[in-house]
## 1
Amino acid sequence: MTRVRLLGEILLLTLIVASVALAGGFQLNEHGANAMSQAGAFAARATDGSAIYFNPAGLGFQTTPSIMFGATGIAFTSSFYGPLQANTNQKYEQAKQIFTPVNGYVVYPVMDRLTIGAGVNNQYGLGTEWPSTWPGRDLAEKTDLATWFITPSVAYRVSDQLSIAVEGSYVAGSVKLTRGVDTRGIQTPAPVNSTLDMTGHGFAFGGGILFKATPELSIGVSYRSKVKVDASGTATFTPDYTQLSLPQGGVTATITLPATGFAGIAYRFMKNFELEADYQYIGWSSYQTLAFTFAANNSVVASAKNYSDTYILRIGGEYTMAPWHFRAGYLYDHTPVSDAYSEPMLPDANRNGLNVGLGYDIATHWNVSVAYFFLKFADRTVQTTVPAISFDGTYHTYANLFGADIEFKF
Amino acid sequence: MKASSLTVTLLALLLAVLIGSCTDKAPGPVAGLGSLSVKSYVAIGNSLTAGYQSNGLYESAQKYSYPNLIAGQINASGGTTTFVQPLWSGAGTPIAGTNIASRYVIISLVGPVIGPAGEPAGSPENLTYQAPYNNLGIPGAFIYDFLNARDSNTCYSALGGVKNPLFTSTLRGIGTQFQQMRLLRPDLVTFWLGNNDVLGYATSGGAVSVTAPGLFDLLYKASMDSLRAAVGTSASIVVANIPDVTSIPFFNTIPSQGLVLTQAQADGLNLATGGVFHFVAGVNGFLALTNSGVKKLNKNDYVLLTCPQDSLKLAGWGSQKPIPNQYVLDSAEAAMARITVAAYNSTITNYAGTHNAVLVDINSLLARLAASGLTYAGQELTSDYVIGGVFSLDGVHPTSKGQGLIANEFIRMMNSKLGTNLPYVDIGSLPGIPAPLSKYQFAGRSVPYYPPDALRALQIQLY
């Protein structure tokens, strides 16, 4: 009946209609320089420790103990032209940031036909940082997300042609979201910012099959379940104008990282040349809404995300001229985000990626790999964002990625 | 070997294509004035045009008047127009006959208290400016005044006995709004008059009469005839229509059905009033005196923001005693106001067409705002009092954000009809209503502490 709502309630509704920073843009598939330089088309071969990510069944054919570790440097460039709601083409540029996901794997054949392994990597990550005074300040300022996956795996070689594997992951994640608070009609002496700083953990399980149909042809499939991460942490509002009744203090959220799976086919055309093509599925439809619960007043702020399931197509190959390995690949990554839900916290778009790399066998028991990956997001002009976002414009994004790994075999 | 060199060549080509597509340049046309020349811009209007806000006229609000914002966007797009306003320093215009500023502020969130804060009034800052002001918006101006008012003695309200000193301080004895506009030889004129011709009726609860639609039509036609003749056919004229006055918070903050009773209270009131009004447990309409006698208000009636809250809460207004007529716009009066607005708008649309003027449909804009709110970049604007962001503390006039909303609607129509491509004002960057907010320990100093639920109290108080 009454048209005047309580300010506290309204602030909550408009406050952190946040999207946690995860999506196509925040899934990382660079978990080994060898695979990365072949555009991640690796599930049908999975010949090094990164099999634990791409297809753990690959461990079944690894008959020597090994250790592999490395890192990827991701340099991200992103700008926004708009907003069209303001009839401008004003350019706003994200701060240049470099992210360095790492990877490490241990592989150990415990007995004939049975190999175990364990891996550590960052399967979701990255961040965005827009100028603090830009027009989209109530949508996104600074967002950081990191996840750690610790994955023990067991692979069993059923025959010389077939290996199967199962694995489980312990997942720890942290997220930090900073953005402006819409204080509605009230002019505060200084703009109010909110920061949600949360950590959480969850579990995933997965497995894979690798089948060497002929000496030239192999086929691999793998799957990893979605991860329900129960996150909790602190909501901080600065300056803290107590009269605004902002829900300072505890905050919780459940964030579901999507299920993913690979299906790959590899063919050795010559003794020293092979190619692989993969289809990767990512079950982003698990990300429909994001809800934060604030302990201070037990209120819930939910926002619709409505992501769709999506896929990545990968093709890559390796040409060997001992001790050198020349590698290259191409991928197409289809965005899970529709125009209506595009937002600056995660400027996503369809992407094309081009990968090149080198491997060098320093000795029979150790080798190094380096990879370069150029990832171009299609320029994306959105004109139909939902009212809760109402921020149309053109996103222009690309990234340069550099990877290196070293592998020891015993 | 062959296959791999082919692969490498293909990949190198692809890389070249991808990197080539990285060129970062603005999509779409760049903002600009297009074919529009703006050497001289004049804004004609009333309080809305003047930048009057929270019951006063003062510089910190005037600088966000929609015409000043439009001039800013013109100059941000390559224009070089000068836009001078009759600024009032400090707290601005006085309460008549005093040196106290009339503007409302949120004096305290404890209570809360909204009203004049006893601030000393300011004074006109540039009375000696050697030319007419570009902003000729005069608070209280009626359509009649454009061609006829020269000072406080000749303005329309003076005919009814209310001399409006802002005519004298704005016009400074150098002619009417029309004459001064002509002196400035404008190539762009915005014209928004007519609001007061119906608003006074509504805000007085029907006590003051409207300008009859037939008379309004004559006056508006005369205004547009003179205006177009004075500026010539090459100048651009932009006119705005009149919003439905009943959509503003002045009429929608105190609910007409705000009387909440227990069964015992309902029984008591029914006994006292002879059972005529059928009070029930729960929500009831307030009792009010209207032109057709005492009635129990329904959802089509409005209680004005000026109705004393204390009397409603403590003195039995609306239950034991009917709310006086001057604080109520009943459904018949509201219908009268709406019919009048519709008639005015049909006049405005008509003469905009015949005089080749761009029409800005503020009525539709505020109807959309009232119906569903407007959002932009995650910020929500509604027509709620205070927290809606659009209407200032007097419940009638826009805040700076509200002025931005109006400016953007003008700009949208100018872009559509005049060939310009002006950017809109970033509404999110415009100030809202200042509140005496303080951090408990701000900058290391202890400051007065307000209870966390003070603003909740503010809202509850308004019922």
Note: Chain B touches chain A through 74 residues (CB under 8 Å).
## 2
Amino acid sequence: MSRFRLSTAAIDPQALRVELQDPSCGGYAAFEGWVRDHNEGQRVTRLEYEAFETLAQREGERIAAEAEARFGVPKILCVHRVGALDIGELAVWVGASAPHRDEAFRACRYVIDEIKHRVPVWKKEHYVNGDSGWVNCERCAAPGEQSAHDHRQHQHR
Amino acid sequence: MTAPLNGLLLTGGRSRRMQRDKATLEYAGRPQLERAIGLLAPLVASCHLSVRADQRADPQRASHPLIVDLISDLGPLGGIHAALHAQPDTAWLVLACDLPFLDTATLQQLIAARAPQRLATAFRSRFDGKPEPLCAIWEPGSRAAVDAWIAAGNKCPRDFMAVHDVELLTLRQRQALDNINTAQEYQDANLALAGAAANDDAPGASRLVHIRYFAALRDQAGRSEETRSTTARTPQELYEEVRRAHGLGLRAEQLRVAVNDDFAEWDRALRPGDAVVFLPPVAGG
């Protein structure tokens, strides 16, 4: 099964953790990304995630392979939610197990950072005032804002 | 032993949504019936039209060998059923008559991948992955199963394929089986085909590409996908074209582009049938 998965159902970290257990591993690290109730000064009520599935799987799997090669980590898993999510829900989960803790921490960090920049997943926020917007897209599309800017500068979590 | 392959064009539909006979609708100046026969005939032993009993005398149909439904009101499965009974030792390359984007390469792909030991060979829909029974090869071995399916009160050939032993293929020409059900779709298809009528590979000529829109771009474009005839030579030129056409707010330098399910360079050459996705700034995590 792929090391990068998209899920329409709630993520179960306990079940995923079991998949990472390995007799050769003495360290395990996991990252959980949760839906937050505010962003850039606005109250957020809920989120929708959408993915270009074929390419998301492909790029996610590449990232896992890179982490494995770079840190020598034998076991990596990542699950990203798609669909509608409420505040507090688990949106993304990354886990890594390795012989030693340092590689597990670093692999986990690498995977979540790369996913946020590279995997074709989009997030729509719904706000208290009834508005909604695609994160990283609305400001760039606003009339009058012509300067090209780097999207890595306004990542939010 | 592999059974000989005949062609069967399904022309017995009642075209309720279109309210016009789909077989005689013209694309690029030719009735679809003639266009489909033109594609089929070189690839099969002989070509037949599936008709309802009351269509036997229709002048546009009468010049072709006809296979008349044995059971009425069964829809396309009735035509397939009649053909399997008319020639029990023949396999049938069955075609709907509302597939204006169908091309020879797609039929060749189907024939090359034919699995005669199974009941049928078909493509997966590019929309939902389910079998496409109306551009498919139905083997003689499917006859008993089709009879049983009809006897059990079923009509849907798609459902039939979903639960029987069928070889399923992935379309190389992704838009080849996009079908036409409404007057608006008919008009759009004709525009697209008129644009693509020139030689696809010549510089400056137009080609058919399929575009999907996600997230902010889908909202701005007011659609999640389109098949488009374009003279754009690269994804860069294509984006400028659709940006103007749909009033898209994002600029190309804010996007990445994928062609045929992987990231691509903006200046690569676009080829006919390419599946292009313009990717808005991502925001996972």
Note: Chain B has a mean pLDDT of 91.
